[in-house]
Amino acid sequence: MPLRISDPDVAAHRNDVLAQVDPDVAFILRKEVTRQEQNLELIASENITSRAVREAAGSVMTDKYAEGYPGRRYYGGCEHYDEIENLARERVKALYGAAWANVQPHAGAQANMAVYFTFLQPGDRMMAMDLNHGGHLTHGSPVNFTGKFYDIVAYGVDRDSELLDYDSIQKLADDAKPKLIVCGFTAYSRNIDFERFRQIADSVGAILMADMAHPAGLIAAEEFNNPVPHAHVVTSTTHKTLRGPRGGMILSNDEEIGKKVNKTVFPGVQGGPLMHLIAGKAVCFHEAAQPAFKKYQKQVRINAEALAVALTGEGFRIVSGGTDSQLMLIDLRPFQITGKEAQLVLDSVGITTNRNTIPFDPEKPFVTSGLRLGTPAVTTRGMKEPEMREIASLITDTMRNCEDESGLAAIQEQVRALTQRFPIHEI
User: Fold this and answer.
1) Active-site annotation holds for 331
2) Residue 173: enclosing H or E segment and its boundaries?
């Protein structure tokens, strides 16, 4: 008897919805929707994707291997995968003014790894910002592969101003003679002089890699300096301010560099690309080219400035005195509370943050004095300056009522009243 596609043993659950197939997972996802609705998301590296991005990222393009690149795949049946990857590449090149793009990296860490593996051999010297001053794990932390594979020379901020001191960075580069210099940070709130970094790199014969993961959305909207005209190669995530699916990308204006990096991404450090996420990236690049996105990014920056000013007025100290981006770093010592303690108590009232070191942090290792805050997600919800002042007041009240259960319960109700005014999802 010929096999029928409707055979229940063969086609079971093929078109059933998640709640029917796996109610346990569906229940957990539903709880996450509620958490997002009820909480103020102030983690600087997180955002809220559009329904269109989520639809593309959850599409049928998850079904297939597409190892290789458009026109040069190792599997048949990739014609539509070629179309979507080409579309994503062309859109992101236009967005940043780049000559070449690779949209296959699974994450920013994989994008950085591909660049390092292209230009460095184990034991080579690279120069990047100290993690404790605002750098990233993949910029040379001893617990990361970069710290294990390469000879790391770290630069930091000026002790007094807490700003980058380009003259000091130049002197360090002159002495160290690194093969590669990384600029772009995860907890440094000020704009970056990418042109000056390129001058420093050229003066010592180094490759300049800019990691724009945090301000990528601001850069697309011309609210932050663009590294693409200056760096040899640029890496980024596609979430954070860019508001796309979780993933990475690499850009350059040098197509010869691009050819080398392509070989490192595949087959060097990755196998089959996640084509459903590349579809989501294509959508996010399209969204980022729209006038509404530019307006959104301007509001992200304005909101960050407003939040920093309001927190300063409440008695907090903002590292470097303010922000030029979507994030800020808060010194909690005036409130005599650690970053971990602040993160936990804020989470208890529905304000989501993350603890962070501050430059020259006087606390013991792993006991941070700082808190990193960002405005991308709350701005996506539609919040503006008045809400930033309200949020600053809620954070302050939480710090002052850390051990008052009834006080914290009242603050949680205020947080929920605020979030109800700015819904996210259709529930």
Assistant:
1) no
2) helix 166-176
| Average pLDDT estimate for 255-273 | 97
Query: What is the pLDDT of the chain when averaged over all its residues?
Result: 95
* CATH class of the domain whose range is 60-288: alpha beta
240 classed as catalytic: yes
Q: Average pLDDT, stretch 325-331?
A: 96
Give catalytic status of residue 237 as yes or no. Answer: yes
Q: Is the pTM of this model over 0.70?
A: yes
Q: Where are the alpha helices (DSSP H) in 204-335?
A: 216-220, 255-263, 275-288, 291-313
Which is catalytic among the residues 22, 67, 124, 165? 67
- The residues spanned by each domain of the chain are 60-288, 291-420
pLDDT at 376 exceeding the cut of 60: yes
For residue 68, what is the enclosing H or E element? strand 68-69
Q: Which of 118, 138, 186, 237 is catalytic?
A: 237
- Which is the catalytic residue, given 22, 37, 65, 340? 65
Q: Assign 133 a pLDDT band (cuts: 50, 70, 90).
A: very high
pLDDT digits (tens, 9 = 90+) for 77-102: 999 999 999 999 999 999 999 999 99
Give the Cα-Cα-Cα angle 323, 185, 374 (nearest 5 degrees).
45
Is 246 a residue of the active site? yes
**Are 233 and 251 spatial neighbours (Cβ–Cβ below 8 Å)?**
yes
Three-state DSSP state, 276: helix
Domain 291-420, architecture per CATH: Alpha-Beta Complex (3.90)
3-state secondary structure of 172: helix
Q: Do the domains spanning 60-288 and 291-420 agree at the CATH topology level?
A: no
pLDDT at 178: 98
| Residue of 190, 198, 246, 372 marked catalytic | 246
For 242-267, the DSSP string reads G---S-EEEEES-HHHHHHHHHIIII
* Distance, CA of 397 to CA of 404 (rounded, Å): 11
User: If phi over 0 gives left and psi between -120 and 50 gives alpha, with beta otherwise, what is residue 410?
Assistant: alpha
CA distance 321 to 51: 37
**pLDDT at 2 exceeding the cut of 80:** no
d(CA 223, CA 243): 15
pLDDT score recorded for residue 367: 75
Residue 4 pLDDT > 60? no
Q: Are residues 392 and 307 in contact, defined by beta-carbon separation less than 8 angstroms? A: yes
The active-site residue, picked from 89, 179, 198, 240, is 240
